[in-house]
Structure formats: C-alpha cells, structure tokens
Amino acid sequence: MLLREARRAGATTMLASGTMTADYHLERSYARPLRRGVFQDLDVVGVKDETEIGAFTRFGVPAARLRVLGDLRYDARFY
C-alpha cells in the first residue's frame, strides 16, 4: 500500500540490491505473496547481477524495469 500511494503521488519506487538466488523464493508460503503482485508497484528493481533477473521475471517483473546494480554493500559509489 505504501508503494502504491507513493506512485500515485508521483514518486519513483525502487527495490535496490534485490536478490532471489537462494531457493527460498520457491517456497510456497513465500512465493504466494509475490505472485499477488508485490512488485507491480515498483518502477525499478535493482538486482545484484544477471543471475538474479530470471527469478524476478518469473514473478512478473517486466524486464524493462530490471537493472543490474551490483552488490551495493561493496560498491563505494553508493556511500
């Protein structure tokens, strides 16, 4: 709801340094909310590397919204 309201107000919404390489996103209790469109209110989903893209597209994130940002924990440009 917060993301939806932010977009309505004209804000750009983003998930930075998203990761889904572990199998936890395949767990039924975790995957169910993701399939309900959790990502639909995000303008940009920043992932760590190309290997993360497939997991996010399986949950309906359009490829045009995905950006490879790297691992923000180690990238000094973001500090």
Describe this protein's structure:
This protein is of the alpha/beta class and 79 residues long. 27% of the residues lie in helices and 15% in strands. The chain has three helices and three strands; from the N terminus they run H-E-H-E-H-E. It has a three-stranded parallel β-sheet, with no helix packed on it. Strand 1, helix 2 and strand 2 form a beta-alpha-beta unit. The longest helix has 8 residues.
Summary?
The protein has helices spanning 2-8, 28-35, 53-58, and strands at residues 14-18, 44-47, 66-68.
Indicate the topology.
Layout: H1 2-8, E1 14-18, H2 28-35, E2 44-47, H3 53-58, E3 66-68
Parallel strand pairs: 1-2, 2-3
Tell the overall outline: globular
Beta-strand percentage? 15-25%
How many angstroms separate the termini? 29 Å
Global Rg: 13 Å
**Secondary-structure content class:** alpha/beta
Largest sheet properties: 3 strands, parallel
Q: Determine the mean pLDDT.
A: 80
Low-confidence stretches: none
**Number of helices in the DSSP assignment:** 3
Order of strands in the sheet with most strands:
1-2-3
Order of helices and strands: HEHEHE
Helix proportion? 25-40%
* DSSP strand count: 3
Keywords, separated by commas or semicolons:
79 residues, alpha/beta, three-stranded parallel beta sheet, 3 helices, 3 strands, globular
